Amino acid sequence: MSTRYSAAALTSAAVALLTAAGVDSAKAQAVAEILVEGDLMGHDTHGLALLGPYLGELQSGNMLKTGEPEVLNSRPAAAAWDGRRLPGPWLVLKAMDECAKMARTYGTGSITIRRSHHIAALTAYLKRATDQGLVMLLYCSDRNSASVAPHGGLDPVFTPNPMAFGIPTSGTPILVDVSCSITTNGMSNRLAKEGKRFPQKWLIDDKGEATDDPKYGLPGGGGTIQLLGGMDVGHKGYGLTLMVEALTGGLTGNGRADPKEGWGATVFVQLLDPEAFGGLAGMQRQVDWVADACRSSRPRPGFTKVRLPGERGLERREAQHAGGIELHASVMPLLTPWAEKYGVSLPAAL
Q1: Which pLDDT belongs to residue 230?
Q2: Which of 163, 217, 252, 264 is 20 to 30 A (C-alpha) from 114?
Q3: pLDDT surpasses 80 at 2
Q4: What region does 271 belong to: left with phi over 0, alpha with psi -120 to 50, or beta?
């Protein structure tokens, strides 16, 4: 079940809840916008479904409410930050602004962030970069938990380790947000709470067999989430997740070899300015050709047409801006106690 709400009203309510919890206005606005953007794009396990848990982290002190990241290292086109467990969406947006300045001058800009709090849906950041004619790469891991085993193993070592990239075209940008595992912790948690199962056998049980039971993706569940590629070719997801580990924990020097601190993120952000290479027009000409060739490919049975990554999400985003966000039924009940605690009015359904 779901109900539709105005995106603007949801953003305002999220800002009000976060500021009531003690978050300064700029950080509250950043977090609210990124969470609502996640819902707009259809990533509803990583949209406002996270706001209640974020408020809990703020209340416990596990997410810092105010302050700035510590700059650990800085060069003209690269920097390393300690996020000090500040809100992840605000840290990533701040890093994007700095990377964009670097990229306009040097062609590229990269920032690593250790000890960030959770950063929500990676896809929520990409359009901000492509709208500027920039290419964006974004990678994330969480050293504080493990739910994905290495290929051929049974013991979890990794998180799903999402990676995302945005590519500007002359029209609709290409937006890719995928995990190195078949599914996510958020979806395992949701399905387990609802007493449902995955549509396919995307996890591994305690005996090493494929299963659709989400409990095996939960902490202490005795199983793991399968890598991208599944039981047969999971070595591909394994290689990708090792790359994400190297770019996040490796480059920050702060990862799984260190003590756990609680729910959080280790992040790599990079922006590239095509004008420093073959030019934006040249890139668009090449990417447009490939995009047109993909769309022109004959659809196989079960498909009406071939889409580009991010196309469906952008269509959903436009529709939900116009007709309201189809908010998952679990979200408002999670936010109601916080709204009562802080005296904040939640928006009415459309």
Answers
A1: 95
A2: 217
A3: no
A4: beta
Phi, psi dihedral angles at 290 (to 5 degrees): -65, -40
CA distance to 25, 187, 255, per residue, from 246 (Å): 34, 25, 9
Backbone angles phi, psi at 83, to 5 degrees: -75, -10
Tokens of 66: 């105010």
- Total residue count of the chain as it appears in this document: 350
β strands within the chain, DSSP E: 2-5, 70-75, 78-82, 108-116, 135-141, 162-167, 174-179, 203-204, 210-211, 224-225, 265-272, 325-328
CATH of domain 2-182+226-281+310-342: 3.30.1370.60
Question: 186-225, superfamily in CATH?
Answer: Hypothetical oxidoreductase yiak; domain 3 (3.30.60.50)
Backbone angle region of 302, left / alpha / beta, with phi > 0 → left and psi within -120 to 50 → alpha: left
pTM above 0.85, yes or no: yes
pLDDT digits (tens, 9 = 90+) for 113-165: 999 999 999 999 999 999 999 999 999 999 999 999 999 999 999 999 999 99
How many Å apart are CA 46 and CA 35, to the nearest integer?
7
Q: What is the pLDDT of residues 303-346, one digit of tens each?
A: 999 999 999 999 999 999 999 999 999 999 999 999 999 999 99
Sign (positive/negative) of CA torsion 213, 214, 220, 226?
positive
Distance (Å, rounded) from C-alpha 16 to C-alpha 344? 7
Residue with tokens 């953003």: 11
Give the pLDDT mean for 268-283: 98
Residue 276 structure tokens: 């420093």
Any idea where the domains of the chain sit in the sequence?
2-182+226-281+310-342, 186-225
Tokens at 64, concatenated: 């810092």
* Ramachandran category for residue 345: left, alpha or beta (phi over 0 → left; psi -120 to 50 → alpha): beta
CB-CB contact of 130 with 136 (8 Å): yes
